[in-house]
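Reminder to self: keep the SMILES exactly as supplied, no canonicalising. Ligand is zinc ion.
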Amino acid sequence: MTSSARFFKLKIVPVPNRETVVRSSVGGCPIMPRGAAWPHCRTCAVPMVHVLQLDGIAGSPLRLGEHLLVFQCRNWNDIPEFPPESGALPDGHWDRGEGHYAFFLTPPGTDEYVLDAETALNISELVPEETREVTKDMGRAQKFVTGKRAFKLGGVPSWAQGPRVLRCGCGAEMEFLIEVPADLPFPKDPSTPEQRNAYSKTKFYLFLGNEIYLFACSRRCHPQALWAIVQ
Ligand SMILES: [Zn+2]
Ligand SMILES: [Zn+2]
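Structure tokens returned for the bound complex:
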């Protein structure tokens, strides 16, 4: 059985000057709550790479006024720790584990400031384009619906290895925000050393280039109550 869902395709459009402030970007200047420090890797203690940020859009799961940020360690290209098979994430999961990546969801109305530009990546603007996808009901006993494989906000995950939906440690459902398709390259600044374990000398990958489905607590219980399912 098929039906359709609305989503926003995320187009990567290069911007010539790294210092240009773009609210939805790959690389560029992170926009964070005033006073927040640039995130560091919990294990290596080095500043992480600001991989992307995205402003919320009315009618999308990333709500209007919200701002999503994704960081990953510049030394450590690996997948997140494996989550529990099913059920709820541990309480305060963002403070546990190796901490070689970080997600932030700034709530609407936050007093923000602009940090210095990321130097490891070339800056691009992320341009959302509203469209629709055909979703397929895979007809299993468990609810199993898949959407289009794309770099996208909203819609339905394409689930390379089948659905895996967890609850937040607070008990609320996790809500699907964005998908990063497998092997999506983020353009690296030419002066940046080669990323470890990457397939490319010139590109930067998130979580080894796996397919990524990023979820947030539907109750928004904490600005870091997000989780990536990586397949
Ligand atoms: Zn690290
Ligand atoms: Zn929660």
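Points to follow up:
The mean pLDDT is 93.
The pocket of zinc ion (ligand 1) is lined by residues 41, 43-44, 46, 73, 75-76, 100 (CB under 6 Å).
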